[in-house]
């Protein structure tokens, strides 16, 4: 579907849309002519700032919703907020995610709840709640190459992303032909925030890039472009996972 074919009356919901990769996705979809609903959990100031910037460019084109997808009622709360803005969605992007290590022997229930809640349970129940409004539209889930290839000290995160990938494939069958469901699996795009030891972080980053044929990190815009293509420009593509990882997955 071409840029011109996108209507300014069509809406996209992007979870975790205030910062980092989510912000780039919001901006890319807005440039394509969609009205964007920016979900956040705690980054309310950043979400509001982004919405103001987008509304300055095109009035009435950006909205902010706040919900905790890890909470039992969070997905339904978010769905109700979205339905108060629009009864129909062209695109749902399940991007919100928590990421932190869970070493065996040190992992607590709260780690499990946060990682599974944000990366698997939340997206499933949000998708279930919004599916009636997505007829003729698409869903793109933000996966991870480590949903297939384990990363040391991150077992629960890898399990959660593996669950989200299976959800992507299963719902592509379950929701067809009315709704297309695909996934984007980023590789090294942005490094984790708040790492305590800069020297150790630099060594870890260098080791990762040694296994990236492109020899560099990608950009949030690389991921946003893949999301826009799967969500808007690929009407005969469903049930697919597109790795945007600079070739990292070639190493197995």
Automatic annotation (TrEMBL):
Recorded GO MF terms: pteridine reductase activity
Pfam families found in the cross-reference section: adh_short_C2 (PF13561)
Organism superkingdom: Bacteria
Keyword terms, alphabetized: Oxidoreductase
InterPro entries: NAD(P)-bd_dom_sf, Sc_DH/Rdtase_CS, SDR_fam
UniProt record similarity statement: Belongs to the short-chain dehydrogenases/reductases (SDR) family.
Name of the molecule in the record: Pteridine reductase
């Amino acid at each position: 579907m071409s840029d011109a074919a996108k209507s300014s009356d069509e809406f996209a919901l992007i979870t975790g849309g205030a910062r980092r990769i989510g912000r780039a996705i919001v901006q890319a979809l807005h440039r394509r002519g969609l009205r964007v609903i920016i979900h956040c959990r705690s980054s309310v100031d950043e979400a509001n700032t982004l919405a103001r910037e987008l509304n300055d460019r095109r009035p009435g084109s950006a909205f902010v919703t706040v919900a905790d997808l890890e909470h039992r009622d969070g997905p339904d709360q978010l769905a109700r907020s979205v339905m108060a803005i629009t009864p129909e969605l062209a695109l749902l992007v399940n991007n919100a995610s928590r990421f932190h290590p869970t070493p065996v022997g040190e992992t607590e229930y709260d780690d499990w709840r946060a990682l599974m809640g944000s990366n698997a349970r939340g997206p499933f129940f949000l998708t279930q709640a919004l599916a009636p409004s997505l007829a003729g539209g698409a869903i793109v889930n933000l996966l991870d190459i480590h949903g297939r290839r384990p990363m040391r000290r991150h077992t629960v995160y890898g399990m959660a992303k593996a669950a989200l990938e299976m959800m992507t494939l299963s719902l592509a069958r379950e929701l067809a032909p009315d709704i297309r469901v695909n996934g984007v699996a980023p590789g090294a795009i942005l490094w984790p925030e708040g790492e305590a030891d800069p020297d150790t972080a630099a060594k870890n980053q260098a080791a990762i890039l040694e296994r990236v044929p492109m020899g560099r990190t990608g950009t949030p815009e690389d991921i946003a472009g893949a999301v826009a293509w799967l969500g808007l420009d690929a009407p005969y593509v469903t049930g697919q996972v597109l790795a945007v990882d600079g070739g990292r997955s070639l190493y197995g």
